[in-house]
Amino acid sequence: MENEELQQWIEQVSLDHFGVPFTHEALFNRRLTTTGGRYMLKSHRIEINPHQLEVYGREEVEKIIKHELCHYHLHIRGRGYQHRDPEFKALLQKVGGSRFCQSLPDGKGRKPLPYRYKLVCKSCGTEYLRKRKVDPKRYRCGRCAGKLLLREI
Ligand SMILES: [Zn+2]
Ligand SMILES: [Zn+2]
Hints:
Blueprint: H1 3-18, E1 26-28, E2 37-39, E3 46-48, H2 50-56, H3 58-76, H4 86-95, E4 117-121, E5 127-130, E6 148-152
Parallel strand pairs: 1-3
Antiparallel strand pairs: 2-3, 4-5, 4-6
Helix pairs in contact: 1-3, 3-4
Cofactor: Zn(2+)
GO molecular function, one term: zinc ion binding
Family: Belongs to the SprT family.
């Protein structure tokens, strides 16, 4: 798909789902690695990661487009356009956009996160590696159902 087709696609999604035109530039950016798309505050440009289309297909990319259009339309109108803003959340839900600027799966344009934590079973000592910090109280040992401790590696 070429940039021109992406531009028309985003303009159409904007009219169909937001009822207002998208009047700025949209393009594919091959250098985006960890996000599916982004909205540029200064230029009002929307950039889409072309790998997303290859990996997830049109339906998912349309959700990313809706997500970026939520940033765009709210920002242009001087409303709360950031992820934490209630207006952003409400609009995103209304149009059915993806919840996050979606990340690509590991291995495709993205470095996998290293393991930085481990859950250790207090009873049998089994260790479970974790990439992110988790609350050990929410989990039990898979082997003996014992209580777990969180340790940094
Ligand atoms: Zn976003
Ligand atoms: Zn155990």
